[in-house]
Write a structure and sequence with these properties.
Blueprint: E1 13-14, H1 20-25, H2 37-40, H3 42-54, E2 59-61, H4 69-73, H5 81-94, E3 99-104, H6 119-134, E4 140-146, H7 149-162, E5 167-171, H8 186-196, E6 200-204, H9 209-222, E7 227-230, E8 237-239, E9 242-244, H10 249-262, E10 264-267, H11 275-285, E11 300-304, E12 307-311, E13 318-324, H12 330-337, H13 342-354, E14 358-361, H14 370-384, E15 389-391, H15 396-405, E16 411-415, H16 419-432, E17 435-439, H17 450-466, E18 474-477, H18 489-502, E19 506-510, H19 521-534, E20 539-542, H20 547-562, H21 572-588, H22 606-615, H23 622-631, H24 636-657, H25 662-680, E21 692-698, H26 706-717, E22 720-724, H27 731-737, E23 743-747, H28 754-767, E24 773-776, H29 782-787, E25 791-792, H30 796-812
Parallel strand pairs: 1-10, 2-3, 3-4, 4-5, 5-6, 6-7, 7-10, 13-14, 13-20, 14-15, 15-16, 16-17, 17-18, 18-19, 19-20, 21-22, 21-23, 23-24, 24-25
Antiparallel strand pairs: 8-9, 11-12
């Protein structure tokens, strides 16, 4: 058989289609564990593989999508991970396919901070399954149908840890163009997964071919890797108790050709498809030449879970916020020592609002366990902020845990030319797909001239290449020194930076150092930015709340747009000299720095601060703000109804408009719960009769909780006692809890779990006549709810209203 690596990106490889659909057509009941069939009904599995091969598939995907231990545990088969997965590869190989892709799907676990699963646990789950698959020597591992970029990245890292096989990573997008759980767009997902070490990146499931086409184009533009695309047979519809896919084989074939012309080179199909779809893909796309020489986004590219930042190669100067640094900020240092992320979140929100492009995160302070606290900060910020993170630490023991869990492509700040730094930092960057800041210093110190600094940079560059990094993984800092102690220092920095730019590397400077110990710091920093920009500065670590400094960056970017010649910037050195002279005069006169220090002055009321804390997911800070609000005279009962509930609903409305994403809602729900818990400590036990007891659950097979969590919080705020059963709840568990309930609410966000919702409603109706049952969720409609005999609400406030009316009606009977 040909080596798949020799064909990737050079020709169109046709991947097979839906496996679950084919099992259903073979009469396999939905409650059957598909992976168990590899041992109990191998002829069915082999037959499906052969049908796809006969239709022209170059690659078949193993019947192991749900072969991880947590998924098999749902059937009581978790102890057969190795047997099922190894058998899956053998059966696929026996089909005669040219290539076997060993399949690993989602674990059903939600990683921190959006869920409770730890990175290490999910990593071990994937490692176990993929090691079993790799033992049978497939051609590649394919990780697919991922709706959380953190889980997808974790899976890629786990695969790389247990095998040397090519690793394909495929994510699933909704109609809004982002993944359901992490809210990640196609370009950002591609950047993150390429950095994590995937061999090919793409998308499958969720959408039909028409909806996927622009997302394929976005991925192909963002990365240089081969792109894989496997759409469903159209957008699914729920009809007569079954999920239906309206697309035809010829439609899939036509779009397959368009996918290849958009940059894809591995094309298959997903849910609702069959070997006929594979045959159409072969007919329409197999002989189309693939686009070769794709380079991806130019410059150094870093990414948070929901945003990509390009630095250098003509991009605007990036502002990296410097405020998350405890130096000179005792309040922040104290909070870090206490393990609280409240101020970290506040600084992040302030800087993002002020226009930062990324956030520098430094937790170095006496008494702070950097390894634990940096990791906590990364998790807190990845849930609540869209901005990419710069991990400002040189200790590999602190960096590695943070790099492991960060669901993005981080920038490490920093490595230098000393042997111990090169030996420890560069391998971490390569292992976890991070970019790295290269400091122009080594064990002997900082050279006093540009030639010496450039020599160190070239040494770091060579070692980076030896480690597997590229120029686009490096940002060079030629080190800004204080002008107060050396008037010539700024000239050396800029001369060194210009030489670095001439060598083809991107540059970054910690601008604020130039004005250290001088008055007029904002003006000096702004003048220096203009000088550095004229020499090609690509990124600046500054305080984005300093409008003088950010204004200088905006002017520099405008000048850069106007033209690349130094004339576009004016006489920047003359402006610097003038600002420097003023600063010296003020220093002699005893003038202050004029620097924007600490947190921005907060003129908001405690109630406004509490609402904002909930909105940004500050579960650490919200309880203390509840205390402040109550001590300020607000009745405890009003705190929930007049402050907390509107805050969470405003965020929910923003989510409905597409202005916020699920991660923000999930961390906000945690903050809401923490605040409500504190409010309840102020309420007497006999504060009033309950409005009613409500059982709430996300139905079997569905792990989404945010809609449920918001509804639960609002119901509790309105005086209802809620028995929250959690997610993935079987009908039997709901039935058991409903005995003393006044109403039951069921949530679902996936079309595939609507049958479970219907079955639960039917079971409740049989055992508890007259018990109100209400349903809701993104895939639920009023008409469908009516068809199964349930009530309905399309949002959380409506849920409260519907429950209140249903309970009142029942009590009147």
């Amino acid at each position: 058989m040909p080596d798949i690596l020799t064909r990737l990106g050079r020709e169109v490889l046709v991947v097979d289609g839906a496996f679950g659909t084919m099992l259903q057509r073979a009469g396999i009941p939905s409650e059957q564990c598909p992976e168990q069939l590899n041992l109990t009904a191998p002829e069915i599995v082999s037959g499906i593989h052969r049908d796809y091969v006969l239709a022209g598939a170059d690659c078949v995907t193993t019947n192991s999508f749900g072969g991880s231990r947590p998924k098999l545990d749902e059937y009581g088969l978790g102890d057969q991970v190795e047997e099922f997965n190894r058998a899956a590869v053998r059966l696929a190989r026996e089909s005669g396919a040219q290539h076997v892709l060993a399949d690993a799907g989602p674990t059903g676990l939600v990683l921190e901070p959006l869920g409770t699963a730890t990175f290490e646990h999910v990593f071990e789950v994937f490692a176990e399954q993929i090691a079993a698959l790799a033992a049978e020597e497939p051609d590649a591992i394919i990780i697919e149908t991922m709706t959380d970029i953190a889980e997808a990245r974790c899976a890629v890292l786990a695969a790389r840890s247990v095998c040397d096989l090519p690793v394909f990573a495929s994510v699933t997008f909704g109609l809004g163009g982002v993944t359901d759980i992490s809210g990640t767009d196609p370009a950002t997902a591609a950047v993150i997964l390429e950095a994590a070490g995937a061999t090919a990146v793409g998308m499958n499931c969720g959408l039909g071919p028409e909806q996927m086409l622009p997302y394929v184009e976005a991925m192909a533009t963002a990365i240089s890797l081969p792109v894989i695309v496997q759409p469903n047979a159209g957008l699914p519809r729920f009809e007569d108790g079954h999920t239906m896919f309206p697309g035809t084989a010829d439609e899939m074939g036509v779009f397959a050709g368009r996918f290849v012309r958009a940059g894809a080179s591995l094309v298959g199909s997903c849910c609702g498809s069959s070997p006929a779809f594979t045959g159409a893909i072969v007919d329409f796309a197999k002989e189309i030449p693939v686009i070769e020489g794709r380079t991806g986004l130019p410059g150094v590219v870093i990414a948070g879970p929901r945003r990509t930042l390009r630095i250098g190669a003509g991009a605007p100067i990036a502002i990296i916020g410097e405020r998350i640094n405890p130096t000179g900020k005792p309040e922040l240092a104290d909070s870090l020592r206490a393990g609280s992320m409240s101020i970290v979140r506040a600084y992040a929100a302030e800087q993002e609002q002020a226009g930062a492009s990324a956030l520098d995160v430094n937790v170095g302070a006496a008494g702070v366990d950097a390894a634990a606290v940096l990791c906590s900060a990364v998790l807190a910020l990845s849930g609540g902020s869209d901005l990419p993170l710069v991990l400002d630490n040189t200790d590999p023991a602190a960096l590695e845990p943070a790099l492991r869990v960060y669901p993005g492509r981080a920038l490490i700040n920093s490595v230098n030319g000393a042997a111990d730094s090169l030996d420890s930092i560069l391998p971490l960057a390569a292992r976890y797909g991070a970019a790295v800041v290269a400091l122009a210093l080594d064990g002997k110190g900082i050279p006093g001239d540009a030639a010496g600094r450039l020599a160190i940079v070239e040494r770091i560059r060579a070692r980076a290449h030896d480690t597997g990094l590229r120029d686009t993984d490096l940002l060079v800092d030629t080190l800004v020194m204080a002008a107060a102690t050396d008037a010539g220092a700024p000239h050396t920095t800029v001369e060194s930076m210009a030489a670095v730019r001439e060598s083809g590397l991107a540059t970054l400077l910690g601008v604020s150092n130039v004005s250290h110990a001088l008055p007029s710091r904002p003006e000096l920093n702004a003048a220096f930015i203009a000088v550095a920009a004229s020499a090609g500065l690509d990124a600046a670590i500054v305080n984005p709340s300093d409008e003088v400094v950010t204004g200088a960056v905006e002017l520099a970017n405008t000048a850069r747009t106007a033209g690349s010649s130094s004339d576009a910037y004016g006489d920047v050195w003359a402006a610097w000299d003038a600002a420097y002279a003023v600063a010296l005069e003020r220093a002699e006169a005893g003038g202050d720095s004029g620097e924007v220090t600490g947190r921005t002055a907060d003129t908001r009321s405690d109630a406004e601060r509490l609402a904002e804390a909930v909105a940004r997911g500050d579960a650490d800070g919200a309880p203390a703000l509840v205390d402040a609000v109550v001590e300020g005279g607000v009745e405890p009962g009003q705190v929930i109804g007049e402050i907390l509930t509107p805050a969470i609903q405003r965020l929910g409305d923003a989510f409905g408009r597409g202005d916020a994403f699920l991660p923000q809602l999930m961390v906000a729900a945690d903050a809401m719960k923490a605040a409500v818990a504190r409010v309840k400590t102020y309420l007497p036990e006999d504060a009033g009769a309950s409005e009613g007891r409500v059982v709430f659950a996300t139905v079997k097979g569905d792990i989404h909780s945010i809609g449920k969590d918001i509804c639960v919080s609002l119901l509790e705020s309105q005086g209802f006692d809620v028995d929250d059963l959690g997610v993935d709840v079987p009908a039997e568990r709901v039935l058991e809890a409903a005995g003393e309930a006044d109403a039951v609410c069921l949530s679902a966000l996936m079309t595939t779990t609507l049958p479970a919702m219907e079955a639960t409603v039917r079971t409740l109706a049989e055992d508890y006549t007259g018990l109100p049952v209400l349903v809701g969720g993104a895939v639920v409609t009023g008409l469908w709810a009516e068809s199964i005999g349930a009530g309905y609400s399309d949002d959380a406030p409506g849920c409260v209203k519907a429950v209140r009316e249903a309970v009142a009606t029942r009590r009147q009977r």
